[in-house]
């Protein structure tokens, strides 16, 4: 398996608990790979393994062709890392943080000022470099943290839930910076639990309970033939309807989406004919049942449900 980032049957155990369970994938140069999944799915553990912060229990993790377990220090010289918790020093100014990390990363003195200015421009901090980081808005903090992570021009960038806790406009601006970085040939592996952010990635790895559920582009995952057909159901009592539909013939999965239900079915035409009388027979009056195109979240719910059922029957 080739790529700037490669996992081959990667496993990480903490005692009896398996946090990463036989994960395999690769990420090419200049590609943005998104790790999408709920908290506790194993995303952060995988990233920490690739950064040399955790040793895998078995399997192989390679970064830029280097086995992470054998030479983690060589890996750390080639990567940038941004943790899910804000990692800068709040009692220092923005410029002081940049200069501190530049020294840590051994940025050549002759290039120091130019690289710091680039990070300031990227973060939109012109005129605010002397402000204490503690006083900056969340979006500025995250862009500054990204600027610090790429001061040394790493070939590979690991971002662990970098937009957690920032507003939607700041998140969009942050992703613009990620794409600008990838356009320069930097390989990016980014984790998130925001499904909408997956649309910004070239490819997505859906992760649940330490396992890869599926890998592909957003459009590929939405068109996955394993998903079946999707219906939107509107009715007054969502809770009762959800419980009833999960036991209905031909229904593969059902989930609440806002004030409606998204229902995956094996046969769309048959379901459109049979579900209305089925629900009325349960004392539930459906207002509307129509076919819809699946979202990425629909895909994730369905694929995770199928994986759980397969595991239960194994």
Instruction: Give the topology string: H per helix, E per strand.
Output: EEEHEEHEHHHEHEEEHEHEEHEH
Number of distinct helices: 10
* Shape estimate: elongated
- Side-by-side strand order of the widest sheet: 6-7-8-3-9-10
The overall pLDDT, averaged over residues, is 89
Described by strand count, sense and barrel closure, the largest sheet is: 6 strands, mixed
| SS content category | alpha/beta
| Low-confidence blocks of residues | none
Distance between the termini: 28 Å
Provide the β-strand percentage band. Answer: 25-35%
Which radius of gyration do the C-alpha atoms yield? Answer: 23 Å
- In helices, the fraction of residues equals 25-40%
Multimer state: single chain
DSSP E strands, number: 14
Task: Please outline what is shown here.
With 314 residues, the chain is of the alpha/beta class.
Topology:
Blueprint: E1 5-14, E2 17-27, E3 32-36, H1 43-50, E4 58-63, E5 66-67, H2 72-76, E6 79-82, H3 94-104, H4 109-123, H5 138-149, E7 156-160, H6 168-182, E8 187-192, E9 203-208, E10 211-216, H7 218-222, E11 229-235, H8 238-245, E12 251-257, E13 260-265, H9 268-281, E14 286-291, H10 296-313
Parallel strand pairs: 3-8, 3-9, 6-7, 7-8
Antiparallel strand pairs: 1-2, 1-4, 4-5, 9-10, 11-13, 11-14, 12-13
Helix pairs in contact: 3-4, 3-5, 4-5, 5-6
Q: What does this molecule look like?
A:
The chain is 35% helix and 28% strand. The protein is an alpha/beta fold and 314 residues long. The strands form 3 sheets. It has a 6-stranded mixed sheet, sandwiched between helices. Strands 2-1-4-5 form a 4-stranded antiparallel sheet. A 4-stranded antiparallel sheet has the order 12-13-11-14, with helices on both faces. Strand 4 and strand 5 form a beta hairpin. Helix 4 (109-123) runs antiparallel to helix 5 (138-149) and helix 5 packs parallel to helix 6. The longest helix has 18 residues, at 296-313. It is elongated, with a radius of gyration of 23 Å. The mean pLDDT is 89.
